[in-house]
């Protein structure tokens, strides 16, 4: 989905070196250096330049990547006892 403009502004401090999320109620949550964030979004029209400058971006076009092959690769990394069930779900 789209990036919510109010939420993403709160996230900017987490993306900085201090890894500190300040919630609207003033509560602060610190994240360690071992925490990384991955976002998938349709577009970034609501993200500010401050947010964009804190992120690395990877653009994957449906024309450039075969989703089926990505799913198959992921499936092979799952425990053997779950693969058959997961394969059935992917085939639906």
Describe the fold and architecture.
The longest helix has 12 residues, at 80-91. By secondary structure, this protein is mainly alpha-helical. It contains four helices and two strands; from the N terminus they run αββααα. The two termini are 23 Å apart. It is 40% helix and 7% strand. The radius of gyration is 18 Å and the shape is extended.
Secondary structure blueprint with pairings:
Layout lengths: L4 H11 L4 E3 L5 E3 L18 H4 L14 H10 L3 H12 L1
Antiparallel strand pairs: 1-2
Distance between the termini: 23 Å
Radius of gyration, whole Å: 18 Å
Query: Major sheet: order of its strands?
Result: 1-2
Low-confidence stretches: none
The fraction of residues in strands falls at 5-15%
Alpha-beta classification = mainly alpha
Helix content: 40-55%
């Amino acid at each position: 989905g789209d990036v919510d403009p109010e939420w993403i502004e709160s996230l900017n401090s987490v993306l900085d070196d201090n890894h500190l999320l300040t919630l609207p109620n003033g509560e602060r949550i610190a994240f360690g250096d071992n925490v990384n964030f991955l976002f998938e979004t349709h577009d970034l029209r609501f993200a500010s330049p401050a947010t964009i400058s804190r992120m690395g971006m990877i653009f994957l076009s449906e024309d450039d990547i075969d989703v089926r092959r990505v799913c198959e690769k992921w499936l092979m990394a799952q425990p053997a006892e779950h693969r058959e069930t997961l394969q059935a779900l992917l085939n639906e």
